[in-house]
Amino acid sequence: MISPKSKKQWYPSQTLDTIPMPSVKSLTKIKYEPGKRGVRRVAVLNKIFMKYITDIMSTGTVAMNIVGKGIEISKVRVTPDFLTVNVFWVCKGDSTDEETESLLNSVAGALRHELSTLRVMGEVPYIVFVKDRQEAQVADLQRRLAKADYGEDYTPTEMGHLLKTEFTLDTKLSPEMKAKISQLEDDLPISEDPIPEMTHNVYGLDHASILSRLLAARRKSKDAWSSLKAECPVISYRAPLSKESEVDTGKQKQELAEFLLKRQILQNKLRKQKRDSREWVETNEQNADDVNDEYQEFEDEYYEDYDDPYYVDEIQFPKNGKPNSSD
């Protein structure tokens, strides 16, 4: 018979020996891996943060005590989760690195505030200053090589100090020998090599002939203009360049006074002519009004006599009874 109890499934139990060891990839795996657009955005943000961070630190906006310290920023890297900005700075490998690190960590907050005012992104990540290990290792290697080559007491000098303008002689000379050498140097005639003539045929072109032709054409044009001005003088509003304008204030004042006097006389004449013409017009208008009045009176008298019937009869039949004959 079949047992009513359900069969229990067996699962293999994992012991400590069977648990797989974690790999390097699993330990270093990033929780957030950006895609193609995210990688491009991170690259752009790296360049933008590099530019703004170096500008702000060089101008001393966040802190004046970091100016002149010789701090060099090698690169800037934004983490894929956009939570931190790692600013890598070059360390010198001496005792000043600790002081520089503490100084940079103290200005990280102010630097983040300045970046937030520039609206680089919505929320600026936290700023973390990190030593550039690669540059530090290179500096340490250079220091060790210099110590091995030149010893522990070696102090490096600038490259400009190694250049010498004159030859030096390490052997000590007697004063008599120095006097003889100086006398020989004075007696030696100074001969200067003649300077070679500069050639004008670069790339197969005779520049001297071309320049001479241009100068001849320019001289010819200038002579033509000068002869034209001499034959036909024209009023020119441009002051000559060779002669400086000499201003005589007394003469100018006298000419101005004469001009104002002539103008006043002309205005008086015009005013007098205008007044005379106005008087003449008024007299003519008055005479015309008198003539019109006389003509109107004559016309009125004539029409009054013409309307009188007795006046007409007297004209046609006078007292002698004979009508007037009109010639």
UniProtKB/TrEMBL annotation:
Residues 287-299 have a biased composition (Acidic residues). It comes from the Eukaryota. Coiled coil: none annotated. This is (apollo) hypothetical protein. It comes from Parnassius apollo. GO terms for biological process: rRNA processing. Residues 274-299 are annotated as: Disordered.
